[in-house]
Amino acid sequence: LKMLGSVLPFANPEMEASRLQEILNTIYKEDAIAVKVNNQVISVPHCRYLNADAKIEAVHKNSIFGISVYRHTLSFILAMSVKQLFPNKTLSVEHAFGLEDSDLCTAYYCELNTNFLRNSEGITEKDIQAIKQRMIEIVQEDLPIEVVLGDSAKITAAFSTNNQAYSQKLVQTLSVPTVFVNRCGDFQTLYILPLAPKTGMMSLFDIQSYKNGLVLMFPSLRDLNVCPPFQPNQTIHDCWQDSNSLWNQLKIGCIGDLNQIIMSGDSKNMVQLCEAYHDRKIVELAKMITDPHRSVKIVLIAGPSSSGKTTFSHKLSIHLQIAGLHPLVISSDDYYKDHSDPTYPRTKDGTLNYECIQAIRTDLFNQHLLQLFAGEEVEMPLFDFISGQPKAVGVKRRLEPDGVIICEGIFCLSDEFTSLIPNNQKFRIYILPICQLNLDENTYFSNQVIRTIRRICRDYNTRGRKAEHTITKWESVRDGEVQNIFPNIKNADVVFNSSLEYEIPVLSVYVSPLLRTVTPDSPAYPIASRLLEFLRHFQPMPAQNVPSTSLLREFIGGGDFGI
């Protein structure tokens, strides 16, 4: 066992987790919430199964990986409390409020289900208080959370007995002889994400009722000593709830259900249903935009990286044409300032900051919008990202009398971006992939994971970039989203869910080989290994049934929109 240059004896591969914890505490003078083994984040008890020398580093909760472990361990304790108090019900963690793996994520929305189709029966305030009290007791008892390798058939039977249907179905479709589980007393869950070694490490949390379920609140990296008050985002939750109704109707609630469909050979119908649902929602948006009671002149589309903004814009344009309008699609990227402009904003390290709205010529953009609305012909800029400046000659555009402008970009929801345009002339859309299907009861599939996988595929297909490059740049991309996109969600008129429930099985075929090229000595390896761990739970699916007009084609290629 090699730990940060120190060599420690590791004669017994079944080393007790408590002994490993003692070693870590001695070196770091404080509890480790998890460890990196050869740069892969795992639970401390999981180290019992190491059978070779490894470099081990402590992971503390004041890091992106550490706070993630903290959140998922709280989810485990919450699920354990629910099961002990209400044996016939099962907790399911459904989605986050805020951006996962960032300071903006401070709560999970959860429901208590009895039929695993997310038809939550609601929860009383008395139930909330009982669950919270039991969580406090479990934390105070400082119980060990073990990692155990068990026989798949026995684990499946145990999940069936305890009404953990999502976990049961997932294990059945993995077709492996053994699986790892997290175990605390007689409660256990699948080992999908690392948990803390002891319940006593989860000292700060809160829960409260919300809609048909409850929210689990926890601290952020901004201040680990404070549990911020819950700030709901109604539009995100409503979007999740709307999509949820479809999958309840189809009796599909988890990745195990999706795997069974793929294994049965009926995935084509699944693809068609997902695509039809997307098209229906885009038609509904087109009707809202063309509503005679509105006076929409510009549709503004914003969303975090790899949400599918470009394809969505093309598809919405088509449906607006069907409705009798003449859309004019423009790009906010063409209004970036010349890179030599002395007023160009810069990051802390002095490099150009493309994620700041001050990098955009908002005055020129607003002037051009007013001219277009007045029926004038406008020479709009074309930005050359290779030279870092606008091209010498732009492109002349004119808006038809029955025209509408469509513009997408990371700044589109900002009031400053269209400061001279009255709000009643704007229709603002926020786009984000919100997956409806859980891996197991305690692990939802986050939009952060979906978008990272999408971007790795697109960067490789369109720019030849390796997965390592995309992952290492992701933090700066996320910082820009935190600054420019998520604070402006409140300005959106609607939220469009760009997730396609079949997409991860398709993307896994493309992205898994790319992720395997990331070596253990790379800073990108912890994320690459975690993504591979997620993907191994999916049955792969070929792209042959994905239509050329699908939003997914933006990331795997072969689409009709030339993206």
Describe the structure in your own words.
The chain is α+β, with helices and mostly antiparallel strands. 37% of the residues lie in helices and 18% in strands. It has 15 helices and 23 strands. The protein has helices at 17-28, 64-85, 125-141, 152-161, 165-174, 234-249, 255-264, 267-289, 309-322, 362-373, 447-463, 467-484, 503-515, 525-535, 553-556, and strands spanning 2-3, 6-7, 34-37, 40-42, 56-59, 90-97, 107-113, 146-151, 178-184, 187-190, 206-210, 213-217, 298-302, 326-331, 378-380, 383-384, 389-390, 395-397, 403-408, 426-432, 438-440, 443-444, 494-497. The strands form 8 sheets. A 5-stranded parallel β-sheet has the order 14-19-13-20-23. Helix 11 crosses helix 12 (467-484) and helix 13 (503-515) crosses helix 14 (525-535). The protein starts with a strand and ends in a 7-residue tail after the last helix.
End-to-end distance: 48 Å
Order of strands in the sheet with the most strands?
14-19-13-20-23
> How many strands appear in the DSSP assignment?
23
- Helix tally equals 15
Quaternary organisation of the protein chains: single chain
Mean pLDDT: 88
Give the uncertain stretches in residue-range form: 1-14
Helix content: 25-40%
Largest sheet: 5 strands, parallel
What characteristic shape results from the CA principal axes?
globular
Instruction: Classify the beta-strand content into a percent band.
Output: 15-25%
Which structural class is indicated by helix and strand composition? alpha+beta
